[in-house]
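Appendix B. Chain record.
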Amino acid sequence: MSEYKTTIGIECHVQLNTATKLFSATDNDAVDKEPNACVSPIDYALPGMLPVLNKAAIEKCVRAGLAMNCKINLVSRFDRKHYYYPDLPKGYQITQMYMPIIGAGTIRLPDGSEVHIEHAHLEEDAGKLTHFGTYSLVDLNRAGTPLIEIVSMPDIHSAAQARMYCEELHRLMMYAGVTNGDLYQGNMRFDINVSVSKTDELGTRTETKNLNSFRSIERAVEYEVKRQIEVLERGEKVKQETRGWNDTTGKTTSQRSKEEAQDYRYMPEPDVPPVVLEQSYVDKVAANMPMMPDEYRSKFGILNLDHSESEAILNYPVLAERLSEVCDKDIKLAPRVAHWFSGVLLAEENADKNYSLATAPELVELSEMVEKKELSSTAAKEVFLEMYDKKNTSKTPHTLAKEMNLLQENDEGAIEAIIDEVLTAPECAKAAEDVRNGEMKAIGFLVGQVMKKSKGKANPATVNELIKKKLS
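C-alpha cells predicted for this chain:
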C-alpha cells in the first residue's frame, strides 16, 4: 500500500438554518414533522408556480464563504440541473453550475496543513425517498431546503486528514452560524472522492455519497483505498462510479456509474435573476463575523492545554466563547475552567446540558473559591455541574456550595479540635505513633479520619500540616 499515493477530494452539503426554504415561504425545519407537512405549491412544482429567492440564504452564503477565507463573488447566477427522480417534482434542481456565489479559498487544519476550496455554490435540496421492495415513498419536506455545496481541491491524502478536514469544516460552519450542524439529521452530508495511483497522475476516482459521521468518513476512505489497490493489484481497472457506504458491514458498494456534466443538460435558470452584491454589503457581514476556531486556538495557546482538550472545547462554540471570556477576566484561572469543561461537563455520559448557562463571572468566582481553599477540587466539580442544572441558574457558586454543604472549613481552631479528637481515639493510636517515628505514610489514615469527622469540610492541606505539627 505504501507504493500508492491516495488523493481525496470532498464535497460537503451544508443545510442552511434559514427560517424558510430557498425559493418558497415554507417552514425550513422539518425535524419531527409528518412527511409532506412542510411543502407548498412551489415545492410540488405545480404549473405557474415561480420561485422567489430567500434573501437570508444569501447572507448565510457570505458568512460561510468568509469563514473559509473564500472570495465572495459579487455576481452569481442560478442554473437548472436536469434529472428525473420522484424526489424532484420539477425534473430539475436549481443550482449554481457556472457562476457560484463563493469562490476559491483555504481552510487551515489543526495540524497546520491546508486544504484549498475550489468553490461553494448555493442550491436547493431534493426530497427524500424511502424504498420498500417493489415501491418507494416520497417525502418532500426537504425539497427546496437551501444548501451550500462546498467543493474541496484534491489536497487530502489520508483517511485521518479527511476526517480532520470534515471536523474543521463542521466547526467553521457552526461558528459562522449558518447551520444547526446536526449530522444525525443530515444538516451536513459528505461525499468523498477517492483515487489511488503509483504516479503523480491521478487515478480513476470513485465517489462515496451521503456520509454523515466523522468516523464513517474515516472508515469509508480506509476501505475504498484498500479496495482500489486490490483491484489494481489484480490487473483490473477501477470503475468511475458512485458508491454507497454501509456502516454495519464497513464496506462501500456500487450504486451507479458516475454522471458527467453533460448528462445533466445544464441551462441558465430563467425564473431567478442573477444575484448582484455590493462590496459594502460583504464588508458589513465581515465586520459582524464572530471569532473563528483558529483565533480561539491562538488565544488558548497560553493556557498550555492538551491538544485533545482544546479541540474538544472548540467543538462547542458557546464553550469556546465562554472560556475566552474567562481568559479576559483572569488568565490564571482559565486553565482550571478549561479542565472543568473538557473533563467534567463534556465527560458526562448524557451531556444534554445547555452549555450557555454558567456565565464567565460565575466560573471565575468558582475557580477563585478553589484558589482561596474555600472549596476542594472535588467539591468544586460538584458545584460546577450543579451550575449547569437549569433549576439553579439564578444562584451564585457560593450559594450553591453552601446549600450543598461543601464549603471547606479553614478555621484552624475548629480543625485542631477535630484533630485532637482523632489522635486520642484508640483506633488511631498506632498511626499516630508511626507518624511520631517518622513513618509519614501513616498520616494519610489520620487525615482521612479527620475528613470523615468533619464531613469533608476540613481543608486537607491544613489538616495535613496541623497533624505534622502536633506529632513532630
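Further analysis of this model is presented in Appendix C.
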